[in-house]
Specification:
The structure is a homotetramer. Chain A is of the alpha/beta class. The first copy, chain A, contains twelve helices and 14 strands. The first copy, chain A, folds into two domains: 4-76, 2-Layer Sandwich (Alpha-Beta Plaits); 85-342, TIM Barrel (Alpha-Beta Barrel). Chain A is 36% helix and 18% strand. At the A-B interface, helix 3, helix 7 and helix 8 of A face helix 3, helix 7 and helix 8 of B.
């Protein structure tokens, strides 16, 4: 691990024949506005500026706009709080009665949507019995269509509380509106930010003012760097309790709903100290792909998984397209336990 | 154009050997919950259900989850208000003193960010002289990094108002927080929803309660259908004044910042009656690609363009990476005028 | 598993008000040209045709072109030979002295390029000692640039043969030219078709005439269905010995070279009976991501892995960007052994 | 335009604390193997090497592999022959009786496949009358499925020759096998390399030995740089007559078959001196999108278009899904003529 001061730096390649005065202007700007040390190397017909100091606040776009600049290249990542370079040890997110990122894997299970008190309490008992240590379920649902069911809302949160009271399982549920932050802080153990809101910066900023653990799902077309920058919003605001969740990215492939990017697990682990979990249910949309990919996620180094489980009385003999029946989930957790051991962890 | 009642329909292909009782359950569910007429065709070892009636409120996912269902296929689009099938005529969005979607092309020009009153007033005068009929400029900026300049905020809106007072140009500026809707309705002519907020449904719902024209940018990885569904949120809420803006999608290509999807123009025009404009500046991030693509956009049928223009005193002799100098913009509008004529329109 | 005759079918949705005579023409065409049974269902103002029989030879595009057709939808996959529906049991590819797809995992290791006889022989010994059961190495290299090293060619093949003679490891190496098929059949154990040639149909057709096992890498932007169709070319030509290799697809993410699509493993396993292996080295381009993803691949159900190993005397103390040093590879195989056990397999 | 010698250069950023001896090894390697001048700049705890000289033959991957290297960055493009920096003037490709890239736009029209002599001769007459100056049509068809029609082959070429004899239109048709190069050189005016073969380097190398104009379609997931590198293969082999053809890239969007990347036109025009044409028929797969996008392509600076035209006696009253009827094509060429004038060109 390196000293942050000298490492957080940037290279600016100047255009051949760049006008001397404009280059001097640029250097002065970098020195005075950002207190950077600027080293200049002159080649036969091009020059390079090497910047020493904290460039995380330096916006590269206006630099790119300068007429003398050919290319700007970050040598160091633009995030600080969530950067492993500055915090070599793994972060363990702590809630009341649970941790994420420690030896024990997080296994978050439950239905896509809370449908009734009866449903969520019954399911909470079953997933707990099968080995889950978190209950997930949507009360406020972000839906592509304005005509589709948008969730039970505040009533759904109440049912989740009941299920928690009955089982002791901490609650993970999604927030969709910045105006609900206070409500969620009161009622929820882990506040989930969905893929569509990963760059809802107003929401991230409000969550940064709380101390409640935030599960930040990766946006459908977010690069890993952008995802970490969104985590940085929360951390920079004062809330270090961020858990990242890989849930598939959008690609050309249509055999699965999205493309689960398991490479993101070792990459994020190297770039950041935050815990990362994986959601194979939403990523693939295929119940029969959940088990192999959940096990693979743990073997790739994930700190946990999020799995959709549902019991449909009308459909009692089969799994749905995306969600598992409690019985199937129970056999998945058996496999996860073996994978956890392989990785020196527990379930 | 077809009769909506019978057209808005869906096909459900059942699995071979689907249990009779479960199929009957499904049919009853569709009839009673959605008042649909269900036609059944039985083949040698598979069956199909054809649904007649309004299926826009029908969520396909739980249907897919049913054990007897192999595939669900929409024959008709899930949007209604913004669907050309039900509103054959082009929508012309009307504001006070302007229209978008009528014969005259919308030319929205201005800086990425409002930096000062002086800057925006001076630039407004120049873009107006060059042929722009809208002033764009960001007051609240959604930034990937929490450490980058987030815009002048409310002060920026005030400067935009001054620029409007001086030039008469209506203002287009981006909203980033649902709590600002009331403020924007008071001060802004066209409220821009940025790509990152295209599926911020809480925000779309609030904008649907107003009558202010909304410029809805396409999300970085949004399909055209999802984009139209987001427009449907606003329209279904009661605000028909939606303008779509294509601004590039995220692909593997890195030569341009995003990939401008000009095909989206004829596709949207066929699927929807809403006006659509194109932003080649953000799509490409390359000032020298703005002119050819702005002209191409008009020739592809767009109702207008949004172009970034900036004057940088320190950099007076060149265009930036993404934005044009006012002089260059002026030559672009000359070309746009010729393209408008070719398309039977005016500037 | 279903009876192929009735299952390989297709649905054609006709446009509302489709002209009766043209529909009759279409039905006659399907009956006479493809011997299909056509079932027709008439709704209030649209109709559906259900096709019964083998539609794999039926090209959907000209059907789509017909003026009366709204949509064509395959219910069954267009591949036969490689389709699990018709061959429920896993295929085990047999070569002289090796199998792929049976209980023992295939571990293919070696350098990107054969550089010298000394290099490849020395490395072959080391990877064998570490647990590899195949030697990989490129003799003919497909290079993006005409100015880059294109491989040692036939001389490289000779060195691979020497390495095989010394170690007994079967050879996997890439073919880049249809004119080399005969040469490769004589000298190589497993002929690799690279991502760029996945749809070089002339090459696939020639390989279909041989019996040599073919390792078919997935194209950078190939869907799983297209990949299986390319396998079908080889199998339909008479060579059933096809091994699929997932090696990453092209997406917007740049933190890894490509995006490893591990979901493809369970998906391919369900759609096809062919063995599938995974190449995490090329997929990520990051040596430190190879171990977690190789282990994850095995846990996701892969029949083996392909790993780049290289020893660089000048660089003896570190792994390269993409390839592992033999020592590191040795520790990876230890982990793979544990993962194999978890999956009820051996190394 | 700059002097090539000093411009074709590269930046290597070394890791902090890079071992002196290994850095010296790297510098010596660059000097002796590639005759490069290496300039070194030392910062507080990192160093940069600036390379002066021709780095096009320098493969960056093995450099990246070195343990002392953090990042390698090309300042100059890796292509030479097709690089506008070294050939400022537009290339005009010359064939017998035609040019591509000069004032007159290339309008290539015809069916997807040659079906019969009668069909192609009749269609050739009609597209010529409508304004086409090239006849396109496939004789050898690359098909995803081995069971689909693979074209008439050599017989199809013969029919194309007849159509040329009757109309004088030069022939553009696709090659799919390196063994056909000689045949195509004898019979074809412009040899088309399809998207799937864009990186079939064996084929490109053979075409580089001829002088016949080559129409190089962009691969489905090829970056613009890779596309230009494939053109470089042909040019470096000795055939400067390369025409680029943008035909859509693969993205997540499904409303169009591929995503037409019109930005590629101005980008290619800036990076290269080669002519570039656009194929909106294959890109979108939607006949009604062909006209607006063909016109847009010309306005974006394309040197021509390739359009699918087909007459289907059974379907005489409508356009197909992708191809235009001759009558519709005729109205498209009227629009193209107007667009050509706008651009200072002719049809």
């Amino acid at each position: 691990m390196q000293d942050g001061r000298t490492e957080k730096s940037m290279i600016i390649i100047l255009k051949p024949g760049a006008e001397k005065q404009k280059v001097d202007d640029l250097i002065r700007f970098l020195q005075s506005e950002y207190s950077l040390e600027v080293q200049r190397m002159d080649g036969v017909n091009y020059s390079i500026l090497g910047l020493i100091g904290d460039t995380s606040a330096l916006d590269t776009e206006p630099i790119q706009e300068r007429s003398v600049v050919k290319k700007v290249m970050r040598v160091q990542e633009p995030y600080k709080k969530v950067n492993r370079a500055f915090h070599p040890d793994d972060t363990v997110v702590q809630g009341s009665g649970f941790t994420i990122g420690a030896e024990r894997l997080a296994v978050m299970a439950g239905p896509c949507s809370v449908e009734s008190e009866e449903q969520i309490v019954s399911l909470a008992r079953k997933v707990k019995a099968a080995g889950a240590n978190f209950l997930r379920g949507g009360a406020f649902k972000p839906r592509t269509s304005p005509y589709n069911f948008q969730g039970l809302g505040e009533e759904g949160l109440k049912y989740l509380e009941t299920a928690k009271a009955e089982t002791g399982l901490p609650i993970v549920t999604e927030i969709t509106n910045v105006e609900h932050v206070e409500l969620f802080v009161r009622k929820v153990d882990v506040i989930q930010v969905g893929a569509r809101n990963m760059q809802n910066f107003a929401l991230l900023r409000e969550l940064g003012k709380t101390k409640t653990p935030v599960l930040l799902k990766r946006g459908l077309s977010a690069t890993i760097e952008e995802w970490l920058m969104s985590a940085e919003y929360i951390a920079a605001g004062g809330n270090p309790n961020v858990v990242l969740c890989e849930r598939g990215i959008r690609t050309f492939e249509t055999a699965t709903r999205n493309t689960l990017d398991l490479s993101a697990v070792p990459v994020v682990k190297r770039m950041s100290h935050l815990p990362v979990i994986v959601d194979p249910s939403h990523a693939t949309g295929l119940w029969w792909a959940v088990e192999p990919l959940a096990v693979a996620a743990v073997c790739a180094g994930a700190d946990g998984v999020m799995i959709e489980v549902h019991e449909s009385p009308a459909e009692a003999l089969s799994d749905g397209k995306q969600s598992l029946l409690p019985e199937k989930f129970s056999s998945v957790t058996q496999k996860l336990k073996a994978a956890a051991e392989l990785m020196g962890r527990t379930l």
